[in-house]
Amino acid sequence: MTFKKIAFVATDVPEAQEALKRLSDRYGDATPADADVLVALGGDGLMLQTLHKHMHRGIPIYGMNRGSVGFLMNEYRDDELLERLAAADIARLHPLRMNATLANGTKHEALAINEVSLLRETAQAAKLRISIDGKVRMPELSCDGVLVSTPAGSTAYNLSAQGPIIPIDAALLALTPISAFRPRRWRGALLSHHAKVRFEILDSEKRPVSAVADHREYRDVVDVHVEEDPTIDLLMMFDEGHSLDERILTEQFLY
Amino acid sequence: MTFKKIAFVATDVPEAQEALKRLSDRYGDATPADADVLVALGGDGLMLQTLHKHMHRGIPIYGMNRGSVGFLMNEYRDDELLERLAAADIARLHPLRMNATLANGTKHEALAINEVSLLRETAQAAKLRISIDGKVRMPELSCDGVLVSTPAGSTAYNLSAQGPIIPIDAALLALTPISAFRPRRWRGALLSHHAKVRFEILDSEKRPVSAVADHREYRDVVDVHVEEDPTIDLLMMFDEGHSLDERILTEQFLY
Amino acid sequence: MTFKKIAFVATDVPEAQEALKRLSDRYGDATPADADVLVALGGDGLMLQTLHKHMHRGIPIYGMNRGSVGFLMNEYRDDELLERLAAADIARLHPLRMNATLANGTKHEALAINEVSLLRETAQAAKLRISIDGKVRMPELSCDGVLVSTPAGSTAYNLSAQGPIIPIDAALLALTPISAFRPRRWRGALLSHHAKVRFEILDSEKRPVSAVADHREYRDVVDVHVEEDPTIDLLMMFDEGHSLDERILTEQFLY
Amino acid sequence: MTFKKIAFVATDVPEAQEALKRLSDRYGDATPADADVLVALGGDGLMLQTLHKHMHRGIPIYGMNRGSVGFLMNEYRDDELLERLAAADIARLHPLRMNATLANGTKHEALAINEVSLLRETAQAAKLRISIDGKVRMPELSCDGVLVSTPAGSTAYNLSAQGPIIPIDAALLALTPISAFRPRRWRGALLSHHAKVRFEILDSEKRPVSAVADHREYRDVVDVHVEEDPTIDLLMMFDEGHSLDERILTEQFLY
User: Fold this and answer.
1) ipTM score assigned to the predicted complex
2) CA of A186: which chain D residue's CA is closest?
3) Residues B149-205: pLDDT tens digits?
4) What is the pTM for the complete model shown?
5) Do C132 and A164 touch (CB under 8 A)?
6) Set of chain C residues whose Cβ sits within 8 Å of the Cβ of D160
7) Residue among D164, D170, D185 minimizing CB distance to B255
């Protein structure tokens, strides 16, 4: 596969901006609307932002690491960009779609590439009821919070909350509690990627909860639905031998 | 040991208020200032409140369960109160003293019987530096939060965060991370009860953190010191054969 | 789907033998070779035995619980067996194929429905090298042992070793360490069901290791290969509304 | 404190034997019976051996690392040995005393500095009843095994089995299950160092269990008692600033 029109995006730090200038001079710089590939210069934060911004276009994104956390980024090099793009593996992912109802009655929809997480806002423990596919599976979880993670997000917040790392092609979502108080030793569940997950916030006035879709936060939610959206394709490009599969496998053997 | 002047306190639910009336009629009702023992009718929340309120007097407190969570409470009975008080074991505990400096420069001191916990206030991970006895032991913990727990508190929030349950007489504090992101598999530490623990909040403007001493919350802390205060005695009374030691041992064999 | 020739098998306890007699009288009793369905009366142990014994025939097996552990068994009832068989969901699973080389040079092959586990035989820690698809991923694991589990086995030994419960249709295998000493906090990995896993036993004379395929044990192994065998179908039948998927989902919400 | 008569012991590897020769030439070499301090040249294995061998004499032991695992050893240096010995901190520990009854009726006693562990000998899960101070606390634990660890041993096998690291002066023992099957999420307990722990092996003919006191193994045990022996002092010497307390604290902050 060959790419001819490259649009570059970069984070606002000198290291990334200088790379942006060099690469634009050398490889041309199409506008994103015009390009057939996006090259993102920064860290994982930029990759997620860029995926969000261009999510509905299905355009592939190739990241090069100019940031601190680069799990989703390829190694930075000035040279041979066209060859690397042509040889790259493309990982096709789907985001989560969150529908949240707030205490004030407004409804909000957001997409998440990594995870949707709920967290208590105050010193009061959150109380949540969890349903899967319309059936209550956890009548009352008393906790700091809970999250639903995609395979791509399973090495992020999910891992901090002791959830399992999931291979990209596993067609699973991780449901992982955050500091569960009762039931106190519940470790969460691996769900089919078709699962429709619903969180009802119990006693939400006394125990306010926020919901976060990737980095976008909604305060005072009362009802949150989460499911994979298979109609949206996220295309991330990885150098040969460094596919996302390989990265996630490697990550599982780190210690 | 015999007790002659009993003061009763109760939570504001019918079950507790009715017990308060019956017991006051039967056993008299001294004022707290006048009493040589306090009898608390409610759940663990009331016990903690009562301990806080009368902490500096060193008066023993005997709880009877009229609430939902009664780990610190004795079984409720109308009869034989004087005999039970006379026969009870007294557990002597010390609280944690927290000194917190806020972003606005104010300083606050609070005591905690269970734990002092720090938690991120927003979707941004907290970044903390942890020192023990003046020496940095964890240069940067990226996490949802962290807590210091007494043995008495080790079955509460500490347990939710996967910290160990500690016997009352162990002379230890538990330092337990809450969803540690980096280092990702750090499980916390058991510290000497003499340990002076300091948390410095890094990047606190972008990543605001709250501190909670038992249920009292302080928003936007930047520096938090925690240590046991051995000069304050908390005296809780437990029926024979149901000492706090025994309860904590039992708790460790629950599953 | 209707079944006409039923062969019954039962464990050797009165409860199971009496059921065998009643059901044979009522529904006839074909020989296993002649039958188009097997009905197993006992616990999970019998189900595994029966699956092993008839593995190469691809005949469906319907279990009814007459034992103590019945995760794979349907509820026992005398009545309506034909209707239940006709309405049952069939779960199609594949076993693991283990190829083990022993210290004496002999080679052994075995199939496992739940898991292949390796465990040290003596007080000496096992030292293992783990490769996935021909690539060393863990150069030296010092441990009590390690296991590879199918989704069906993920609620068995894998769960005891703190491995994740895996939905039946997830196309994954769990690789889970047993008391890892170094690297001390390695938690294992979820692998593609295509993964070819190899364990080389290091220092095997001083540190002997046994391998177990389900309940079949091989002492003093030096090299063990494990992979799914997709050419063998295991067919287990479950009452409507109690499919294996449903059971594994339920299991994940137990506490 | 000054030491005049030094006896050296060394493991049987060139690195240790050469050090032995150099140091004996330089500092003299008393017989162990004659010495007032032992200097052990090797790794933790040698330290444990030396402690065991001279346990009843209460002689202090100073280790210098000539092996691979040196948690209990000081840094190796040829020079300034007398000064280092004079300045060293002495940690005073007590061993565990194990009394095991075997299936053949014989009784065996052994001491353990790190831990007493029980482990199944075959593919059959062990079934154990656990009592503390004469009271059954766990009627039936189905598992790979279980261990009792001293604080000194808490960074060894106990840590592999996910048990907590315990400060040296905490006066606690860790009781930690190894791959618990039922109750499946039991995590063990921290016990008073006065606790008398008893393990009864259930169904021991079908499910044989071995007991190991440090590295000494007893096969086919049926009843095992474990408790601290406060009458035996183990004296280990550590360089200033590298006390055992400090080492264990440092270990808890490793990741």
Assistant:
1) 0.90
2) D185
3) 999 999 999 999 999 999 988 999 999 999 999 998 899 999 999 999 999 999 999
4) 0.92
5) no
6) 143-144, 179-181, 184
7) D185
